[in-house]
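Bug #77: duplicate submission created two jobs. Keeping one. Sequence:
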Amino acid sequence: MTRRKKTRTGGPLAPRKQPKMPGSQSSALELGKKKGKGKASGSRHSAGKSQQSVSAEKTIQDQRKGSKKPISLMPTNNAIKSDELTPERELQALENDQRLQMLLQRIEDEQTLTSAEQAYVDEKAERYEQLAAQLGIELDDDDWDDEE
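Kept job's structure:
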């Protein structure tokens, strides 16, 4: 048997197609160029950027960069005064220092201190004496021993 070539026609039993009207809109769209999707190829690498995109990039700023306001690296006189404690407050802070009180209690109980702990006690005791002398407070260790 000889070979028969296949056709796309549906044969005698297939429904008939409608003839195309030359003036209809649907035929104009079918014959015209199809609308593309997305940007044209190579648009990312094109050298000429539009002015709108360049200005849009300048207006949109990355908020993670932070403020551009210059900051002085040297402290001003106002900053120094606000950070310093008055001698009365510093003396009170030394009296309320929990670590210092704990270490002094260990010294009274005749326990040994590490070199770092001993240096801390010495530093705070020296500062306490300086503040007491500055404020005119007399520290008499003999009076305390007699009362006990």
